[in-house]
Specification:
By secondary structure, this protein is mainly alpha-helical. The protein contains nine helices and no strands. α1 crosses α2, α1 runs parallel beside α6 and α8 runs antiparallel to α9.
């Protein structure tokens, strides 16, 4: 990309972010973004074909990284089960909860866009998509535990969906309510103290 286009693109990004964070996707205006960037609306369309493409440029890299990191994390955790390191498995899960908070706060604006400003875009169901991914992985986890000789109680898909949805919503409350990072870390520790013993009990794996 020629340097002048790169410079213009980089100037647009914070203007786009401010506009969407302030007004949400549906009420955001390409003309307003252009005014913020000191350029014409026609100039913006040299970089983005429409408003949704602009929103997508802000959040799509994050969602791709988020889902990929989750899958990689779960795969690493399964390796502990091969060695029957079940206590370490749950301990690392707690550590990952705190790492999750750090990741969220390193990309706070982008998560804010996804959770509160994405109505009308393909990202508007982000929370639902995360919950569905978690349900799939919990179902896989239960099967993996059984395959490795652990006794796991039966839990229905409806119950699993309810528990997972509550968990996912709880985690992202820190973004929706604009918690400072320090408060979010304290909140996550409390949440982990509450949730993980509950998960182990629900699965019949109290240690």
């Amino acid at each position: 990309m020629p340097k002048d286009k790169t410079d213009t693109y980089n100037r647009l990004i914070p203007c786009m972010k401010t506009e969407f964070l302030t007004k949400g996707f549906e009420k955001a205006s390409v003309r307003s973004i252009a005014n913020r960037a000191g350029m014409s609306a026609a100039g913006i369309y040299r970089h983005f074909k429409n408003k949704e493409a602009m929103f997508d440029a802000l959040v799509a890299p994050l969602t791709e990284t988020y889902f990929r990191n989750y899958q990689e994390s779960m795969q690493q955790s399964y390796e502990l089960l091969d060695a029957k390191e079940i206590k370490k498995f749950w301990m690392i899960s707690e550590e990952e909860g705190l790492a999750h908070i750090d990741f969220i706060y390193d990309h706070f604006d982008e998560f804010k866009l996804l959770l509160t400003c994405s109505e009308g875009t393909r990202h508007q169901n982000f929370l639902h998509d995360v919950a569905e991914m978690e349900v799939r992985e919990m179902s896989r986890l239960i099967q993996e535990l059984r395959n490795r000789g652990f006794a796991v109680k039966d839990i229905s898909q409806d119950e699993l969906h309810m528990l997972v949805s509550g968990y996912v919503t709880s985690i992202f409350e820190v973004v929706i309510h604009n918690y400072p990072r320090e408060k979010a870390i304290s909140y996550m520790k409390t949440l982990m103290d509450f949730l993980y013993p509950g998960w182990m009990k629900a699965l019949g794996m109290e240690l």
